[in-house]
Structures are given as structure tokens and as C-alpha cells.
Design brief:
Helices cover 76% and strands 0% of the residues. The protein is mostly helical. The relative contact order is 0.12.
């Protein structure tokens, strides 16, 4: 039978938070998003993504803070960021850097890139009504729509790169905490 006293320490919460963060990132980035794009008509896919992204990027911003609060120290098990003597004394700056990077990348997508993407999507929808055709229809597009499509592709690419960076750093952090086992 497991020793339930561990539940009184931050250790299980650190592991569960990391698993939730990394699992969410992997699922949404490589399964849920791409499969939804293939399965749903574009308007429904856009609604789904615009509903999921704020929550997803919010989690990507906030969960690294919870990881920092339950941070594993090398010497006495998990003590969290509150015990800064042990935290900074055990060479843990790279782990804190990883958590900070993940949070910053989530915040960039949540507060800057995501809203910019949503604005371009609204602008494209408005332009579709003016042009009488969808932004993704084959054939010639108006100059305005071509500009909006180019802007959307650029912003979406930035968001994807920032998200991929967060996923990679989260995986890197997993390797760092595995080194402690």
C-alpha cells in the first residue's frame, strides 16, 4: 500500500501538474488541433479553436507557476520555491528558467498573438461578406483578402512557433526533473 503521507507534500502535485501541462500541450498541438482541422468544416473549426486557445494558453501561462511552487529540491525531496535557500543552492536556475520561458511563451500567445489572430479572423470574415466568397475559396481573391490571408498566415505561424517552443521547453523540463530521480 502506498504511503499516503506523501499527499501532505508538494511532490505529487508537482508531478501531476507537469503531466497535465505536457499532456495538454502534446494532445492539443499534435492530435486535437490537427484532427479537428481535418474533421470539421472551417467555420466550426475556427469556433472550436477560438474557444480552446484562450484556456489552453492560459494554462500554459499559469501552470508553470504552480510547478515553481511545488519545485523538487535535490536535498530534501520537494520543498517548493518558498524555500529559496535550497532552491537556489542546488543549481536549479535552469529549471526555473524553463518554467519562466514556458509561462512567458504562453502569455505571449494568450495576451498578444491570440487576440491579434482573432482580429484578423474577424477582418477576414467581414471581407468575405464584401467579396462574396470565403477566404479559402479557390480562384482569385481581392487585394484586401490576399493581404488578410498573408497576415493570418504570418500570425498563425508565429503562434505555432511560440507554442512549439513552449512544448519543447516543457519536454526539456521533464528531462531535467527525471535527472533528479
Amino acid at each position: 500500500m502506498p504511503d499516503l503521507s506523501i499527499l501532505g507534500t508538494p511532490a505529487p502535485y508537482h508531478v501531476l501538474t507537469y503531466g497535465f501541462l505536457f499532456g495538454t500541450q502534446l494532445f492539443h498541438s499534435f492530435l486535437g488541433g490537427p484532427l479537428s482541422f481535418k474533421a470539421l468544416p472551417r467555420p466550426q473549426f475556427a469556433v472550436l479553436q477560438s474557444t480552446i486557445f484562450p484556456v489552453y494558453f492560459g494554462l500554459q501561462t499559469v501552470l508553470p507557476g504552480l510547478l515553481a511552487l511545488t519545485y523538487p529540491a535535490k536535498t530534501n525531496g520537494i520543498v517548493g520555491i518558498r524555500n529559496t535557500g535550497q532552491l537556489f543552492g542546488d543549481g536549479s536556475r535552469r529549471e526555473l528558467l524553463a518554467m519562466g520561458l514556458i509561462s512567458i511563451m504562453g502569455l505571449v500567445n494568450w495576451a498578444i498573438v491570440g487576440p491579434a489572430t482573432t482580429k484578423v479572423m474577424r477582418d477576414r470574415k467581414s471581407q468575405e461578406h464584401k467579396d462574396g466568397k470565403k477566404s479559402y475559396d479557390k480562384g482569385p481573391q481581392s487585394k484586401e483578402m490576399m493581404g488578410l490571408n498573408k497576415k493570418f498566415a504570418r500570425i498563425h505561424g508565429i503562434s505555432s512557433l511560440v507554442n512549439l517552443g513552449a512544448v519543447l521547453v516543457t519536454g526539456w523540463y521533464g528531462v531535467m526533473i527525471a535527472e533528479r530521480m
